[in-house]
């Protein structure tokens, strides 16, 4: 398991509906954001890469995905500074793999929400 519900549980204070809501939003939004991020990378769009990495970062942080958070932050910073796209794109496969793994785990652990 590469995610943790510690932060969500702390915020939820025992509210199972809140936890399920956060998981649902993650499952709805983050895979689409990841897909959009891949398109923005293909298009070499620094602004869009920055925006999407910035949007993904708090979502993965909420699930305690430290490695994914670090990758999103790195992509966000590089895109903001208009770094070379090869450098930015090199980070993406790890981020994608981590998110896809957590999405699969969450669907198993919380199905059906």
Give an overview in words.
- The protein has helices at residues 6-12, 16-42, 46-62, 66-80, 85-109.
- It is an all-alpha fold.
- The protein has one domain (17-106): HPT domain (Four Helix Bundle (Hemerythrin (Met), subunit A), Up-down Bundle).
- α4 runs antiparallel to α5.
- It is elongated.
- It starts with 5 loop residues before the first helix and ends with a helix.
Briefly say what this structure is.
This protein is mainly α. Helix content is 81%, strand content 0%.
Instruction: Name the CATH superfamily assignment.
Output: HPT domain
How many individual helices?
5
| Element pattern in H and E | HHHHH
The N- and C-terminal alpha carbons lie at a distance of 19 Å
Q: Tell me the structural class.
A: mainly alpha
**Percent helix among the residues?**
over 70%
CATH class: Mainly Alpha
Modified residues (Phosphohistidine): 54
Organism: Pricia mediterranea
Keywords: Phosphoprotein
Protein name: Hpt domain-containing protein
Q: Secondary-structure map with pairings?
A:
Layout: H1 6-12, H2 16-42, H3 46-62, H4 66-80, H5 85-109
Helix pairs in contact: 2-3, 2-5, 3-4, 4-5
Properties at a glance:
mainly alpha; 5 helices; Four Helix Bundle (Hemerythrin (Met), subunit A)
């Amino acid at each position: 398991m590469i995610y943790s519900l510690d932060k969500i549980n702390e915020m939820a204070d025992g509210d199972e509906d809140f936890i399920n809501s956060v998981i649902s939003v993650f499952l709805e939004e983050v895979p689409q954001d990841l897909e959009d991020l891949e398109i923005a990378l293909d298009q070499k769009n620094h602004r869009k890469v920055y925006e999407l990495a910035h949007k993904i970062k708090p979502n993965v942080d909420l699930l305690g995905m430290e490695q994914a958070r670090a990758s999103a932050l790195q992509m966000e910073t590089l895109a903001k500074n208009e770094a070379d796209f090869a450098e930015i794109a090199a980070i993406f496969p790890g981020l994608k793999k981590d998110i896809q793994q957590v999405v699969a785990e969450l669907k198993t652990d919380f199905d059906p929400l």
